[in-house]
Design goal:
three-stranded parallel beta sheet, two-stranded antiparallel sheet, 5 helices
Length: 153
């Protein structure tokens, strides 16, 4: 595994192009010591306007989820989700920084109230809560530590 220190001055870093994931990418870059966010900026809502210092003069490229892994040859680094890189056959050894994410970034299933009692939604919720699915997420080598079961702390 490399190091975030290897990113060159003026390096191009990709962040996801939607606001929530762009904020997560900025949090990740701050955790890696590459930028500093202004005091009071929150991990889930930060924008590039919240960058207080950028000592390596990093340039940010906003890309869609699917485009980021294909664009790696043109980038110095990308802040994104491990499972997208694995799906693109990019080995974990290319990962240079992967801290545990705060609970603020946990994915969740959210439905509109008017759909809560429909059979399709009930079946979907039951599938997510199925102990076999939870066991798979906790133990299968392909996803263990990447996709977490519901009760993971």
């Amino acid at each position: 595994m490399g190091s975030a220190d290897q990113i060159p001055d003026g390096g191009k870093i990709s962040l996801y192009s939607d606001p929530a994931n762009e904020a997560q990418g900025l949090w990740l870059l701050q955790e890696a010591g590459l930028i500093t966010l202004r005091e009071g900026a929150t991990p889930g809502t930060a924008t590039q306007d919240d960058i207080a210092s950028n000592p390596k003069h990093l340039q940010f490229v906003l890309l869609d989820f699917a485009a980021q892994s294909r664009s790696l040859p043109d980038l110095d680094a990308a802040a994104g989700y491990t499972e997208y890189y694995l799906a693109a056959n990019i080995p974990l050894q290319q990962q240079i920084f992967a801290p545990p994410a705060p609970d603020d970034f946990a994915g969740q299933l959210t439905i509109g109230s008017k759909w809560a009692d429909t059979d399709n939604v009930k079946n979907l919720v039951a599938a997510f809560q199925d102990p076999r699915v939870q066991d798979f997420l906790a133990t299968d080598p392909a996803v263990k530590g990447i996709l977490l079961p519901i009760d993971a702390k």
